[in-house]
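Subject: Protein record for review, amino acid sequence with backbone structure tokens
Why sent: The fold of this protein is of interest and is recorded here as tokens.
Enclosed: The protein record, placed directly beneath this head.
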Amino acid sequence: MKMVISVVLAAVVFCGNASACEGGVEDWSRSFLAMRSVRGHFDGGAWTASVDQWNGAKHQAMQCLAQHAAAQATATAQLLQWMGSPDVRVRCPSEPCSAFAPALQRPAEVWLYQWRGNHDRLGFAVVNGRVSRAQWFYVGE
């Protein structure tokens, strides 16, 4: 019975905080970097809730980092410290850039970080060495 109550309370606390960015940027960065190399379901590994689940720990860390980086117009050097090198850099202007960010000022780049492999990714529009906005690219199933 105690175990059931503990699990229910833990679920309530987690769900209540699922959309909030608690802690600070260093906490979100540590969380993301720790999970970045974990192979989840969408990377050919086993299902791992913290990595694969909607609003799982990796998704939340990425959401908080994106929100903070875009709001602060974070310098790319700082973004590299928080998230490491992007999985893909798309130079603009180019056809791939137009697909990700059609209204992006030129010259610029889009930095893409994988959440669940190529299935769902987080993009940062980078203009003049600073994040100008962040946007998710979900498969939308």
